[in-house]
């Protein structure tokens, strides 16, 4: 196996020694040999293809965590993952264009219709809930753990229709810099609520009064493309409420709404505001 020093490998791969050390620490591109006495790194020439792939993915804006996942895949699956990343990036760029246009219009005193806002009536219901502070990276895994593995997987019954849709309330911003808090809510039948709650002592059973909520929905089932698209949608909700003098009651909600056509295409992720 032909070996080269980190300096020579840096020249051949066009990755700086600093980047190579970082990729080593993250397990993305580890040297073929490290001298036990000096700690000096040596790379195999055969690692150049992987190094160039990592460099190309970084230039394309792929996060390091996603690169690690891509490198673990076979070539066909890796190509599909890269294609999916770029589709999401394009959708995020399109949403940024809309957001910038909205900001420009607002500074010029214009009103811009971004999403269709609809109002619906929500009856009184009993909720199993959990409140916690979470980072942006923790949010989706914890949501899956509670809603899918514990509650749905545990056979907790669902109320039919939108009143039975699980939802998340953002009592504070969740981002790279802010950790909420977030409240996960699962509606349960009132006549069985106490018995169900007894099986989940770490969850709180509370009653939510009947109310109206304004909401927006994306066009296809599944998750929203990116943070900017979400920001535009949430901005549309608050703009709608402000124009009509409707006061929100609490934070923005992410609702896992059932397919209204009943086609089994999976839940639609809606954003909603409970209205006073």
Blueprint (SSEs and pairs):
Layout: E1 3-5, H1 6-13, H2 17-25, E2 33-34, E3 41-44, H3 48-59, H4 64-71, H5 75-107, E4 118-122, E5 125-132, H6 136-152, E6 167-170, E7 182-188, H7 193-198, E8 204-208, E9 211-217, H8 227-243, E10 252-257, E11 268-275
Helix pairs in contact: 5-8
What's the quick description here?
With 276 residues, this protein is an alpha+beta fold. The chain has 8 helices and 11 strands.
Report on the structure:
The protein is of the alpha+beta class. The protein has three domains: 3-71, Orthogonal Bundle (Multidrug-efflux Transporter Regulator, Chain: A, Domain 2), CATH 1.10.1660.10; 74-112, no CATH class; 118-275, Multidrug-efflux Transporter 1 Regulator Bmrr, Chain A (Alpha-Beta Barrel), CATH 3.20.80. It has helices at 6-13, 17-25, 48-59, 64-71, 75-107, 136-152, 193-198, 227-243, and strands at residues 3-5, 33-34, 41-44, 118-122, 125-132, 167-170, 182-188, 204-208, 211-217, 252-257, 268-275. The strands form two sheets. An eight-stranded antiparallel sheet has the order 4-9-11-10-6-7-5-8. A hairpin with a 6-residue loop joins β2 (33-34) and β3 (41-44). α5 (75-107) runs parallel beside α8 (227-243). The longest helix is centred in the first third of the chain and has 33 residues, at 75-107. It is elongated and about 70 Å long. 21% of the residues are buried. The model has no long low-confidence stretch (mean pLDDT 84).
